[in-house]
Write a structure and sequence with these properties.
single chain; 453 residues; Rossmann fold; six-stranded parallel sheet; 18 helices; 14 strands; 43% helix
């Protein structure tokens, strides 16, 4: 079993790995600069909502194999592996903000012991060439005789299923210039039984960006198809089922709705586009993927405005704030833009989310947080479903109809059974669910068909 330090150990990725590696029997010290989070974690309280995380945290603390600290002198010297899990947020031009990485690399380099080999594992999503940068920063700050290798090990976990994904990865990608270092990291993951791809560092870094860009492209693709479906009377759910049955396409990431958010897809697609720009290329597809995604949020607000003949003075219940279900993460959540658009147009917004309200209340003081979906719907002219929490599908719509002032439900995630809603006397509109009416004549133009009979 190995001695491991996780730098950024109270973030989504770092905390997931700190608890998981302790569970696998390693001795883990999680280092973070956020003192309040570190204190809470040592008490067994997770600052992050993630299924199963708090239980695993308590088990790790109880086993004596897991602890949290803000003290780099305590956390780094003598560890065989140092996982770099700090944030790599986007700057406004799409470029990656590498300040946390740079600072962490310097902190690590200064504390590596002479006459000991340490493997630094780059788990954060970092631009192509970052493993070289981290290697250089370590070399500049390391004391004589300390030996260090850097392995690029991109992470593919999904928030809301982080622990599942850590324990059941599809693949482990390891980019190294030193095969032995890659194999040492592969050995850490061996109990998980996943296929391992060992490659050069830049290709490993690129795998992460290409994977997220592809998935984001699938989402923007189905959302563009949904708009056409809605205009021409087709149902995108059926279309997604029909194309998803083709194994070359596959059914996943074909849910039309409000698009992607979160800390990864928007920033990683933007960063890849930025890297392509910087290399003198024209990343047209990546730019379109991002444009389509943002446009969905504007269109959703516009649809509410049209359906209610204006939003000024309307009371709108927003169900769901987190960027997706089973997380409390609000980063790049469609809810932020949707609520911003509603408030701008004079609406009064009442919101409910099973996990993200505490964080949202700090970000959006103008929004009233409600205790449950019924309280949010009380006196509302419309309900907008923004996050696909399963809980919303099980709501009693008869009771909802009784407490609302209006009767409109705009389902931005195609989550609800339309009949359950309309059966309760409410109006329902999903995304890309078609409408009746004439197909524009320009589509069916051409010479009239003359019957030969
Ligand atoms: N969140 C995800 O679902 C996910 C999935 C795959 C990859 N990633 C990537 O993993 C990385 C981390 O993402 P996250 O969501 O966990 O971020 P996060 O912001 O939740 O966590 C980062 C942590 O690093 C800490 N930190 C910053 N500078 C530090 C330093 N110098 N020393 C010690 N700690 C420091 C912060 O306090 C924070 O707790 C990013 O590069 C992200 O793109 C994230």
């Amino acid at each position: 079993m190995s001695a491991i330090c996780i730098v950024g150990g109270s973030g989504y990725v770092g905390l997931g790995y700190a608890t998981a590696l302790a569970e696998l029997g390693h001795e883990v010290v999680a280092l973070d600069v956020a003192a309040d989070r570190v204190a809470a974690l040592n008490e067994g309280h997770s600052p992050i909502f993630e299924p199963g995380l708090e239980e695993l945290l308590r088990r790790g603390l109880g086993s004596g194999r897991l602890r949290f600290t803000t003290d780099a002198d305590d956390a780094i010297p003598g560890r065989a592996f140092v996982f770099l899990c700090v944030g790599t947020p986007a700057l406004s031009n799409g470029e990656t903000d590498m300040r946390q990485v740079r600072s962490a690399a310097i902190t690590i380099g200064q504390r590596l012991r002479p006459n000991q080999r340490t493997i630094v594992v780059n788990k954060s999503t970092m631009p192509i060439g970052s493993a070289d940068l981290v290697t250089q920063l370590l070399a500049e700050h390391v004391r004589d005789g300390a030996e260090v290798a850097v392995v690029a090990n991109p992470e593919f976990l999904r928030e809301g299923a982080a622990l599942h994904d850590i324990f059941h990865p599809d693949r482990i990608v390891l980019g190294a210039s030193d095969r032995q270092a890659a194999e040492a990291v592969a050995a850490l993951y061996a109990p998980l039984g996943a296929p391992v791809l060992i490659t050069d560092r830049r290709s490993a870094e690129m795998v992460k960006y290409a994977a997220n860009a592809f998935l984001a492209t699938k989402i923007s693709f189905i959302n563009e198809v949904a708009q056409v479906c809605e205009a021409l009377g087709a149902d995108v759910l059926t279309v997604a089922e029909g194309i998803g049955a083709d194994p070359r396409i596959g059914p996943r990431f074909l849910q039309a709705g409000l698009g992607f958010g979160g800390s990864c897809f928007p920033k990683d697609v933007g960063a890849l586009a930025h890297m392509a720009d910087a290399a003198g290329l024209h990343p047209q597809l990546l730019r379109a993927v991002l444009d389509i995604n943002l446009d969905l949020r504007r269109r959703f607000v516009a649809k509410a405005e049209r359906s209610l003949d204006g939003l000024d003075g309307r009371t709108i219940a927003v169900w769901g704030l987190a960027f997706k279900e089973d997380t409390d993460d609000l980063r790049e959540s469609p809810a932020l833009d949707v609520i911003g658009g509603l408030l701008e147009r004079g609406a009064v917004v009442r919101a409910y989310d099973p996990a993200a309200m505490a964080k949202a209340a700090r970000l959006m003081p103008a929004v009233t947080m409600a205790a449950d979906p019924y309280a949010a719907a009380g006196g509302a002219d419309a309900i907008l479903i923004v996050t696909p929490w399963k809980e919303f599908a099980g709501v009693d719509f008869g009771r909802i109809a009784g407490v609302m002032r209006g009767d409109l439900i705009l389902d931005g995630r195609n989550l609800l059974d339309p009949e359950a809603v309309t059966g309760a006397g409410l109006r329902y509109a999903g995304v890309g669910r078609g409408r009746t009416g004439a197909v524009p004549s320009a589509i069916l133009s051409g010479a009239p068909v003359v019957s030969r009979d």
